Amino acid sequence: MSATAMRILQLCLSICVVILFCDRGKTSNTTTLRSRKPTIGPVFLMVSRSPNKPNVMQVLIRFSGPPDTLAHAELYDDLDTFQVSGGDFVSVVDFEEGNENFILVLKSEATSERVIFNVRPVIGSYKINPNCNIDITSADVGEITTYTIVVSECPREETEGKLKQWGLWHKLFKGRKHIPSADYLTIEKNQQSTLGNVTTVSFNRSSLMNSNVDMLLTFYLSTYSQDTLVPWIEWNYILD
Prior knowledge:
Layout: H1 3-23, E1 28-36, E2 43-49, E3 56-63, E4 70-73, E5 77-78, E6 82-83, E7 89-96, E8 102-108, E9 113-119, E10 124-128, E11 133-141, E12 144-152, E13 163-174, E14 177-179, E15 186-193, E16 196-204, H2 205-210, E17 214-224, E18 232-238
Antiparallel strand pairs: 1-11, 2-3, 2-10, 3-7, 4-5, 4-8, 6-7, 8-9, 9-18, 11-12, 12-16, 13-14, 13-17, 15-16, 17-18
């Protein structure tokens, strides 16, 4: 073996020893949190005038989802939900005819998922199909937790809107005081890979706990369209 080849071999062995030494005791624990399209949906909406109530519209909602899925109006008001044949759920709610910003929410604690959408006072029907594939994994290396979110296989139907946006919604606070997210979170977004569009967020969970900092972390995917009945839909996936 030549002297040059021997030096290259020694260098490679030295690098391997350094890597092994630095990584010793730091094992990675990776968990798949979800790997599929949304579990809530499809959602069928029928908007009409409420019988015997002037200036009031009525929305009939029929949707599929996990057994614990709840329906809310204007984010807070619980709606009565009934299960019908085929396993779907049905709910009915009224809203004022002039309310252009009426919001409905379907959410499941079991899958940490929400679907939020704006219904306008326009007579007609609409179908919300499950949107893009959202694959989420969580990896712990030492004290660092990293969430990796991959968006792929987004539908191209015009009824799902021509504009899609996604990202992380994050809020950190200590007591009632908001804390800058940059002090604790490292976020990389819109990374392209063969799997799809990748977003990662990393943080030191021990540092958050030791500083008594609470965190709300949600990945969102919003769809905007020119449809006159449902112009805006947002899918939420609660991470932390």
